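Sequence, please.
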């Protein structure tokens, strides 16, 4: 089949979701109020709580949630065929991710910018909150430690991406000063910033950078991981307007341009999808499509990490409550578009079915490499770009997506540490820099304790998809309790909630058996902890729903 058909159907479905379905949700379910005083104004401190232009905030939100996962997940899941991956990405974006991300942002804004973990205590109970914080901390640990490995691998494999990756930080610092300190209108910093970022890609092609083979016993990958965590720690402590927000915004524009190039190349090249719609000849050892499809593709269809970003940073920067629809729902659409591009690159970027099967010879193969190589071929044939340049553009895209998720993720992990410290009364740890050091220490301990080259973050990565989807289901539990208490229709969150919890718990049980067979006691123990915590929180949420349905209606926050 022509990949253009897949592209047009997918983009049209997501567009309809944003323009019609999200409008219905905003008006009839979440009932956004343009006069509601958001936490960004009520609690403004110009560090975390900062009223922000909705386009800038969308850039922060979109690039923070769209890490490497919406590329990696679909790029692995197409081993079952392109059709299941396509359906889950498009329908998941419209009916699952959009409702979840939008809802987490709305709920947090209505509760003084509380994170979804803290909100659990208010809505369900303190026991559920404490268990939820455990799941959240483990998920953030997985994201931060694993994404550092993904980025370092890409920087080592493609030295031409080093200058544009780190140059983006300098560009962001200038943009932050221009917009907030010198009050320059948004248009010109946006245009100049994107031009400079793409110019840096050409500079990187001419001046590739590699690190020394060994520094104090650390190889290039380990060196990059240490540098990445040092950057993320500093970025997580700076006021959001200095680096995090402008970096995410300008990266969002650049990445949207990159997606535009990818879709334009598809339109001009008309590549044929060589992968089967339903793969009846999957390699030996490939697990069953149900439930594994729905946790292999997490980001790009629905992701619990999005709820952490929406309630952890985005809700503290929302200028008007009505902006939540654009930031939350359209942020999910942006990630769905990236996942769709990954499906096209990994199924239509190969010359023949045999070449595709040579890459997808076992479960877990493909990934970022398939996206970069397949997408590079489409860019070369559709737009006439040099294949090396096309691969560099896509590598930089993947790195910037992962990097913006990592620095936001460490900031969120700092919040979780501070919340936990408040619960147990550890006052020193409630300080921002102390909590950041604790977060960094746990990430580095995992990275280097389980792998001398810093790759230890990948050890617990097999649990990411299931943990992520469980977190999304539990977030939908909280939204459902709130809607029930306020006597609003709950089906729009309850149906995705039920589906996600069933698929995620089934996936945890499947993985439990595999970890036991492989005698992987670390993952087996973590699987059991996550399973118990999730079941407990879900049970408490169901009880809260029952109490909410039988009690008096709770008035809306004002």
């Amino acid at each position: 089949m022509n990949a253009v058909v897949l592209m047009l159907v997918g983009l049209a479905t997501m567009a309809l979701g944003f323009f019609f379905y999200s409008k219905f949700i905003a008006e009839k379910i979440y009932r956004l109020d343009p006069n509601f005083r958001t936490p960004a104004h009520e609690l403004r401190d110009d560090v975390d709580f900062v009223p922000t232009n909705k386009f800038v905030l969308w850039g922060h939100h979109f690039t923070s949630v769209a890490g490497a996962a919406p590329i990696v997940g679909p790029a692995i899941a197409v081993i079952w065929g392109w059709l299941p991956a396509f359906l889950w990405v498009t329908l998941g974006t419209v009916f699952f991710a959009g409702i979840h991300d939008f809802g987490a942002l709305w709920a947090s804004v209505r509760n003084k910018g509380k994170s979804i973990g803290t909100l659990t205590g208010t809505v369900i109970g303190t026991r559920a909150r404490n268990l939820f914080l455990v799941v959240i901390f483990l998920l953030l640990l997985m994201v931060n430690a694993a994404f550092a490995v993904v980025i370092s691998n890409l920087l080592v494999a493609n030295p031409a991406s080093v200058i544009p990756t780190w140059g983006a930080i300098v560009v962001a610092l200038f943009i932050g000063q221009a917009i907030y300190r010198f009050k320059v209108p948004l248009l010109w910093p946006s245009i100049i910033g994107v031009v400079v970022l793409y110019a840096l890609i050409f500079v990187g092609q001419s001046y590739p950078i590699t690190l020394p083979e060994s520094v104090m016993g650390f190889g290039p990958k380990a060196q990059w991981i240490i540098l990445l965590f040092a950057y993320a720690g500093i970025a997580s402590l700076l006021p959001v307007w200095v680096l995090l927000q402008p970096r995410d915004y300008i990266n969002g524009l650049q990445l949207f341009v990159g997606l535009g190039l990818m879709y334009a190349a598809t339109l001009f090249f008309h590549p044929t999808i060589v992968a089967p719609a339903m793969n009846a000849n999957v390699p030996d050892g490939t697990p069953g499509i149900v439930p594994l499809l729905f946790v292999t593709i997490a980001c790009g269809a629905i992701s619990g990490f999005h709820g952490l970003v929406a309630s952890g940073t985005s809700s503290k920067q929302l200028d008007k409550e009505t902006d939540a629809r654009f930031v939350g729902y359209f942020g999910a659409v942006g990630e769905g578009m990236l996942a769709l591009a990954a499906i096209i690159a990994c199924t239509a970027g190969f010359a023949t079915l045999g070449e595709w099967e040579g890459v997808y010879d076992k479960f877990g193969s493909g990934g970022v490499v398939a996206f970069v190589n397949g997408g590079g071929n489409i860019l070369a044939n559709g737009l006439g770009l040099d294949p090396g340049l096309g691969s560099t553009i896509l590598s930089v895209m993947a790195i910037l997506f992962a990097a913006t998720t990592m620095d936001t993720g460490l900031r969120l992990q700092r919040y979780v540490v501070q919340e936990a410290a408040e619960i147990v009364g550890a006052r020193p740890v409630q300080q921002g820099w102390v909590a950041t050091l604790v977060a960094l220490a746990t990430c580095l301990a995992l990275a280097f304790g389980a792998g001398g080259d810093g790759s230890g973050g990948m050890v617990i990565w097999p649990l990411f998809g299931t943990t992520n989807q469980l977190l999304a289901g539990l977030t939908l539990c909280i939204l459902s309790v709130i809607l029930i208490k306020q006597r609003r229709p709950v089906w729009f969150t309850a149906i995705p909630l039920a589906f996600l919890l069933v698929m995620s718990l089934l996936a945890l049980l499947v993985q439990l058996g595999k970890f036991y067979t492989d005698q992987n006691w670390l993952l087996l123990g973590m699987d059991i902890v996550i399973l118990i915590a999730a079941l407990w929180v879900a049970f408490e949420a169901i009880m809260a729903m029952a109490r909410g349905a039988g009690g008096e209606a709770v008035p809306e926050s004002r």
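DSSP finds 21 helices and no strands in the chain.
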